[in-house]
Amino acid sequence: MAEHTTALARPMRILAAAALAAGLLAPASAAAADATGTWLRATGTSRIKITRCGGDALCGSISWLKDPTGPDGKPRTDDQNPDAGRRTRPLLGLPIVLNMKPTGKPDQWKGEVYKADEGKTYTGFLSAIDAQHLKLEGCVMGGMICKAETLKRVD
């Protein structure tokens, strides 16, 4: 019985070594997801255009609004901004995904997210779910409490 076990052990070790070598030689992950492009919010109320903004960083601004004008017929503005001098800025073109840099995790970036309807800026994370979807998170308490939204690619 010992001879039979020894005879099987060698081929098993060879297979294990081959599998380990294949794993070490394979790329750690697929090519990084391309988060640049235009993305529709889950609510369908706006689109965010994400572009490179220096090195590996990503930034995004509002590129389309379902309702671009307010009840007064004028373009919607950043009226909730705590800085009174910024409240007249148009929402179209407003930067809301700010300086997202790679975290070291595959297809994830960290920076800030400006939530115009609250006039607040949060710690933000952007993560590629797949080629057609991104997860955008705004977090408080150092990232302990986060609210996420899934964005869908439109271009």
What does this structure look like?
- This protein has 155 residues and is α+β, with helices and mostly antiparallel strands.
- It has one helix at residues 2-25, and strands at 37-40, 46-52, 58-65, 95-102, 108-115, 120-130, 133-140, 145-153.
- It has an eight-stranded antiparallel β-barrel.
- The longest helix is centred in the N-terminal third of the chain and has 24 residues, at 2-25.
- It is globular.
- The termini are far apart.
Structure summary:
With 155 residues, the protein is α+β, with helices and mostly antiparallel strands. The protein is built from one helix and eight strands; from the N terminus they run H-E-E-E-E-E-E-E-E. It has one helix spanning 2-25, and strands spanning 37-40, 46-52, 58-65, 95-102, 108-115, 120-130, 133-140, 145-153.
What keyword list fits this structure?
155 residues, globular, eight-stranded antiparallel β-barrel, disordered N terminus, alpha+beta, single chain
Task: Give the helix/strand layout.
Layout: H1 2-25, E1 37-40, E2 46-52, E3 58-65, E4 95-102, E5 108-115, E6 120-130, E7 133-140, E8 145-153
Antiparallel strand pairs: 1-2, 1-8, 2-3, 3-4, 4-5, 5-6, 6-7, 7-8
For the biggest sheet, the summary is: 8 strands, antiparallel, barrel
Average residue pLDDT:
84
Q: Structural class of the helices, strands and pairings?
A: alpha+beta
Rounded to the nearest angstrom, the distance between the terminal CA atoms is 64 Å
Q: Number of helical segments?
A: 1
- Point out poorly predicted stretches: 1-31
The run of helices and strands is: HEEEEEEEE
Our Rg estimate from Cα atoms comes to: 23 Å
Strand order of the largest sheet: 1-2-3-4-5-6-7-8
Give the CA-based shape.
globular
Percentage of residues in strands = 35-45%
Number-wise, the strands total: 8
Q: Share of helix among residues?
A: 10-25%
